[in-house]
Every structure is written in C-alpha cells, then in structure tokens.
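This follows on from our talk about sequence and fold. Can you supply me with one protein entry, sequence and fold together? Could you add the entry underneath, on a fresh line?
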Amino acid sequence: MFGQVLVFADFLLNYADPRFIAEIDVDNIVSAPTHYIGKDGDERIIDLIFQCPLKNGEGSLMAVIVFEHQSKSLKAIPLKLHKYIAAIWDAEKKEGKSLSAPYFLVLRTGKKPHRGAYPMMADSLPKGSDGMPLGHVPEIEYDVIDLPTWSLGNLVGGTELRLALGMLLKMTGENLDGFTEALKPLLEFTDEGQKIELTKELLDFVDKAFAAHNCRLDAAKVNEAIKTIFPGKEQTMIKSYIDELRDEGIAIGKAEGEAAGRAKMVLKALRTKFVKVPKGIEGAVLVMSDPIALESLLEHVFHSTTLDEFATELR
C-alpha cells in the first residue's frame, strides 16, 4: 500500500518535516526505481523511493521510506542510508541527471516507540583519547516516525494511509484482536466496488504476509471483519470474488490445462473465505482432473459455511 503514490504523499503531508513539504510539488511525486548496490550486486534496496520535484524547478528531493519492522535498535540505519544515497547518486550520475537531495524517513513498527538520540555513523567508528570520533566522519540526517502512540484512534491522514498504518500496527503487534478495527477506514469509501476491491487486496496481502511468518488469521476474525465492512452483504462480496476467480481460472486453464487452472481457482476461493485450508483438502482438490466437477466445487465454496461442510461435498 505504501507503494501507491497517493498513500506516500498523504504520509509525507501528515508525518514528514514541514520544511521539506513546503518545498516539494506534492501533486507530481513519482515512484523512483531502486538500484542494486554493493560490489557484486548482491545487496538490493528493498524499501520505497520516491522522486519529489521541487516547486522552484531547481531539482528534486529523493525521499526514501526505510521500514524497520519490530526493530529494537536503529544501530544499522546510518550505514544503510550511506549505501542507499551512494547507489542513488551513482545511478543518477550514470544517467546524466542532476543529483537529488536525500530525505530519509525511518518508519518503525516495533513494539515500543524509539527513545533517545538517533544512532549516527560516529557511534560505530574508532574514537580518540578525547572520546571524539577520529577522521572526518560523514553523517546523514534522518527522521524516525513511530506509529503514533500505538493506538489506531490516534492515526492521522487519509483513508488509505490510515489503513496502511493500521495494518502495520496490527501485523507487528502481539494481539490481533483489533484486526477488524484496522479495516474500519474502509467504511469511508462510498464506491462499493472500490471498497470490495481494496478489501480483497488487504485480505490477500495479510494472508501472504502471515503465511511467511507461519501465522494465520483465523476464519472467525476474517468473517468478523467482512461483516463489519459489508453488513448484510458479506455473502454478496464473497460471491463477487468467486465470479472473478472463475474468470481467472479460465485464463490459467488455457495456459496450464483446464483442470489445473480450476483447481487453483477453488483453492484460492477457499483461502479467501476460510483463510487456512487443511492439507488433506488441498491435496484432494489438486488431484482432481474433471473441470466440470471443479467448477461445481467452486459453487460449493460460496454456499458452504464451514470447511467441514465443504469437505463433505468434496467426498
């Protein structure tokens, strides 16, 4: 979500240094390409970079969001920022462009806000007998932004920004009971189609992110969230999603074989509705070779209220 320019611009307006905001043309911010860095190209910038043109037309600001998930220390940040700006400037020089001014924002999503001074390069370098760093120490300034007071009620900004911040807060915290609350900004969308699309994107994102950490939202939490955002319409939303999956399955089927495409379509629908699919059910679906039977199973996903009910139809 932070990759969307609108979300990033909203983030800048609400959380960045006002001095920088006053100088940039917010309406013309664009995503900037990341570049491989390191001698062998084995290290890559994985945070977000945006090029922000200055209002006076005299160049641009290269704004970088550095994500520190559950970070206990910012000790590694200074060296990382030196690598980033060196890579950016090197790429701009090779492309014959003017060098951009760097602006680094470290977005922390740890369990506690950062306390004390921000670490600098001098902290990691040798000191003289007077305790001062030796040599000419290069330093890069940066801002640290913690999720405000660790409360969804205190998040500021537009709808999508508060969704992004709320999701980060809940996904890095210890308690997921407030997952539904993190999705409540969706209620501000008046366009039902847009609300449905964004909800599906969020649930898909959460599912993949949690799976990467061997964690899942249980079906009860997902159903609670959908009922809150779409009161009385949760079944319609799921049906709409299944219809889209049917089209997707047909496209996959043309490339991989009709049965394989429809099997993937059924599993995706199951994960959307029930979040976690037992390996037994997954295996049974994947070995099916009858496209018509798989099409029928997709309908059963919509009508089944539990995985056991679906499993009965599968047998």
Residues 210-314 form one domain. Residues 234-256 form the longest helix (23 residues).
